[in-house]
Specification:
The complex is a heterodimer of chains A (about 525) and B (about 325). Chain A is of the alpha+beta class. Chain A contains 17 helices and 19 strands. The two termini of chain A are about 50 Å apart. Chain B is built from 13 helices and 2 strands; from the N terminus they run αααααααββαααααα. In chain B, α8 packs across α10. Classes of the chains: A alpha+beta (about 525), B mainly alpha (about 325).
Chain lengths: ~525, ~325
């Protein structure tokens, strides 16, 4: 009797469900991550920054290739070496109807360093600003102590909140929606943690009119479930399609895939600083002087890696071999650097030349739940290195354990990833290659403690060179110096894949963000 | 009875204290949450600010005492990741997990026990044997795989049921429950079935064993001799006698269900506590981990207590504690 009841429940539920799918012009999308907060300044992390762009705008926006274009500012020019002038857009309204003015920009800049309990804030983006001068309601002058040629990039990193709606409010008020008032293309309707975020169209948006009336975002972290949700029609779009599912989804009816290269670089950081590196020994297991201090050994390691094979076999073609820290075509990228060719013979020759004809022993460490196929990549690299004589063991661990230990310099060869928020090279060089300098704030992710005075000097020079052409020239020289000296071993850039229902298209972005205005009906 | 309860409560307090110390120290040794949460290009100054703000620069014992002081007032601290009270975040997600757990338990009890009893009675024909085969599958197949299979079959191929998420909850007595609408029910069926599979198999095997044992007993022969109908013998008398082991085991398993529905919740994107805790462990959000584990331990203690009391009610021969 109970079983019969259950069966009839199932049938009735499915009939009703079938009827309810018929609603159109609304989208349901399944995203891999969920934001930790809807307060755009609380936590500088990808999911939060992505969702912030739905409700808020930046002073300067980034397009799908991370080139800057006017957002809440129509134009910006340096009026002196230490002053940038921003001309703000007129006629922009917040979701509560109040107008956007210079007061909101000033309030935003002042709020950022003062958000309580922020695990990671945007203070770095506004730290150099000494004064925010409001010339008139639509003109703002930003004063800095030293020349700041990259100030526009800083203003392309955080979003602007409404002074009226958020003054005196806390992060929790953003999460509940009370203070979550922006100028962006969509308004927040509600957020049920873990279940869904509901947005509706902002009909008064200053930019391109948003296409969709209502969008429901569902966080689905399990890769298999997310793909199944797309195939079953429960969602109209998903992000981060796992490489292993690309083949069968390409063949599936009713599903379309869209790719874009991303700025997520997967690379190796080598301990090039210490004489005594914890994970390095000779073939018999005795301690030796760290071979990776010699540039020939580092170059040999780079030559030993078959990037094409990793991209084709492990990443199923969804990776682009890398030569530097940004993909080609970006500002400040060298046109002469090319991905290191797979050359095991050359690697062995270099090792012999450096004094290690029999190679040595090493352990490679990496995360196993952070980057796409990170565990497999580490194992492949270990095998490739072993082939040229560097007998390598693999030790991968969850990211919760890995990053702390890596930053505490417990490892010698580390598999890591990096994605530049600012879309330009100085961010990468400054964090990865510049000598670790706590006061100046350089080398925060330089876990190999690489140190090259030429790289340091050129980077610091570029950071105060305001003329864009000159700035890029110095940046390119700096990057070439660092890469030719193998400060890090770049491996590849990940390719992001989005899946949609047939009839929709997604304009892939190199920052990997899923934004509503990139979703178009065909 | 009173002495028994007081003794129990004291024991429980000690268990909770020891548990809190273990978890605190354990999470501390895994690593520093700031390393995971901070933006990779943050300056060392920014890193230091975050560490100070979360009190992670203090020595471990000092952090623990701050926590203990707060806990005695019911404040388990703010989550590092969400910056809201850890207890509030957990209790927000509790109804969803409870709903899932209760439904799974309901299925296990009302499908597993009858099936098990049938298997016990019909143990030498194809009905009984197939029920037992099903129960073996229920034990051995991993929840993770079964969940994905259910989604692929019922959602992708047949399109009958949604692939995940929770349906529109309906407000009832101040709680948001999703099984009160047909649509909500459709979202609940697959994850509840997934979760219920193991418990159902458990219930089947326990009931079957119980029935087989009891059918041999004298009181059954006596009842038959007296002329009682089969339905009454089995449906009433045998059923009561098999309940003790079944309730004991299912009671403990219920605690398991609530605490560890993690896999099912992750696969079906069900917004419950389990998913919250696994995510929090991944980023070392210590306040949530500690709060969650303390709540779980409390729950187990309570269930243990209820089972013990029920036990003494069901079986008059059993005495609690030191009653003489």
């Amino acid at each position: 009797m109970k079983k019969k009841l259950l069966i009839s429940f199932v049938i009735m539920a499915s009939l009703i469900l079938g009827a309810s799918i018929a609603m159109a012009k609304d989208l349901t999308i399944g995203l891999k991550g969920e934001p930790t907060s809807l307060d755009p300044h609380f936590h500088n992390v990808t999911q939060n920054n992505q969702m912030a762009l739905w409700v808020f705008d930046k002073i300067i926006l980034q397009d799908s290739r991370q080139k800057l274009y006017p957002g809440l500012a129509e134009s910006w020019t340096p009026v002196s070496d230490t002053v940038w002038e921003f001309k703000l857009r007129k006629g922009v309204k917040f979701h509560d109807g109040s107008p956007f003015t210079a007061e909101d920009m000033k309030y935003t800049i002042e709020r950022i360093p003062n958000v309580p309990n922020s695990p990671s804030s945007f203070t770095g983006a506004v730290g150099a600003i000494t004064e925010v001068e409001i010339v008139d309601p639509y003109t703002v002058r930003i004063h800095t102590e030293k020349p700041a040629p990259l100030m526009p990039r800083n203003f392309a990193s955080f979003t602007v909140v409404s002074k009226k709606a958020s003054e005196g409010k806390a992060t929790a008020d953003f999460n509940s929606g009370v203070a979550c008032i922006g100028t962006g293309p969509y308004k927040l309707v509600e957020w049920v943690r873990g279940d869904k975020i509901v947005y509706e169209r902002n009909d008064d948006y200053w930019g391109v009119k948003p296409e969709w009336e209502k969008i429901i975002v569902r966080p689905i972290s399990n890769d298999g479930t997310r793909v199944a949700a797309l195939q079953s029609g429960d969602v109209d779009l998903i992000n981060f399609v796992p490489p292993a599912d690309v083949k069968h989804l390409k063949a599936a009816e009713g599903v379309a895939l869209y790719q874009s290269p991303s700025t997520r670089l997967i690379y190796l950081h080598l301990d090039s600083d210490r004489d005594d590196s914890p994970m390095v020994t000779d073939n018999a297991g005795n301690k030796i002087k760290n071979p990776m201090k010699d540039v020939r050994v580092r170059k040999a390691i780079s030559k030993a890696i078959n990037r094409e094979a990793i991209a084709a076999r492990i990443m199923e073609g969804l990776a682009i071999p890398a030569a530097q820290m940004l993909p080609e075509g970006y500002e400040g990228t060298s046109t002469t650097l090319k991905p290191e060719k797979y050359d095991p013979k050359g690697a062995k020759a270099l090792l012999a030349e450096a004094g290690y004809p029999e190679g040595f022993k090493l352990t490679i460490h990496g995360p196993n739940d952070r980057y796409v196929n990170d565990g497999d990549i580490a194992q492949a690299i270990a095998q490739m290195l072993t082939k040229v004589g560097i007998k390598t063991e693999v030790n991968t661990m969850p990211k919760a354990v890995y990053f702390g230990k890596a930053s505490a310099l417990e490892f010698s060869l580390m598999l890591l990833g990096w994605a530049t928020d600012t879309g330009e090279h100085t961010n990468c060089v400054g964090s990865l290659l510049h000598t670790y300098d706590k006061e100046k704030g350089f080398g925060s992710a330089n876990r190999g403690r690489y140190s090259n005075p030429v790289v340091d000097q050129k980077l610091e020079e570029a950071l105060v060179t305001v003329d864009p052409a000159e700035h890029n020239k110095i940046v390119i020289e700096c990057v070439e110096a660092g890469m030719n000296d193998v400060g890090i071993v770049p491996i590849h850039f990940q390719v992001s894949v989005w899946g949609t229902k047939k009839g929709l298209s997604y304009n892939g972005r190199t920052d990997g963000y899923t934004l509503p205005y990139e979703i178009k009906a065909q | 009875m009173l002495a028994f309860l007081i003794r129990r409560i004291t024991q429980s307090a000690v268990v909770l204290l020891v548990m809190s110390v273990l978890v605190f120290v354990g999470v501390y040794y895994i690593g520093n949450p700031i390393d995971i949460l901070i933006a990779p290009d943050a300056s060392p100054a920014e890193y230091a600010r975050a560490v100070k703000e979360f009190g992670l620069d203090k020595p471990l014992w000092e952090q623990y005492f701050i926590f203990l002081k707060g806990a005695l007032h019911g404040n388990f601290g703010n989550s590092f990741v969400y910056n809201e009270p850890a207890l509030k975040i957990i209790f927000d997600r509790l109804p969803a997990t409870l709903e899932l757990a209760f439904t799974a338990m309901f299925m296990a009890v009302f499908m597993g026990i009858p099936l098990g009893m049938i298997a016990g009675i019909q143990h030498d024909n194809w009905i009984g044997r197939n029920i037992m085969r099903f129960s073996i599958l229920g034990f051995s197949l991993p929840t993770f795989w079964v969940g994905l299979m259910l989604i692929i079959i019922f959602s992708v191929h047949l399109g009958w049921l949604p692939s995940g998420g929770r349906g529109e909850p309906v407000e009832f007595l101040g709680m948001h429950l999703s099984f009160l609408s047909w649509k909500g029910l459709s979202y609940l069926i697959l994850p509840a079935s997934n979760l219920a599979l193991f418990k159902t198999s458990l219930a089947i095997r326990l009931s079957r064993a119980g029935v087989q044992e009891n059918l041999q007993m004298d009181y059954v022969k006596f009842a038959r001799a007296k002329g009682l109908s089969n339905t009454r013998i089995i449906g009433l008398h045998v059923m009561k006698n098999i309940m003790i082991p079944v309730i004991t085991v299912l009671g403990m398993e219920f605690g398991n269900l609530i605490a560890f529905a993690v896999v099912t919740e992750t696969i079906f994107a069900w917004p419950g506590m389990g998913k919250l805790v696994i995510d929090s462990i991944g980023v070392l959000d210590r306040p949530i981990i500690v709060a969650y584990l303390l709540i779980t331990v409390t729950m187990f203690i309570l269930i243990n207590l209820i089972v013990d009391i029920l036990y003494s009610i069901l079986d008059p021969r059993v005495r609690l504690g030191d009653e003489r």
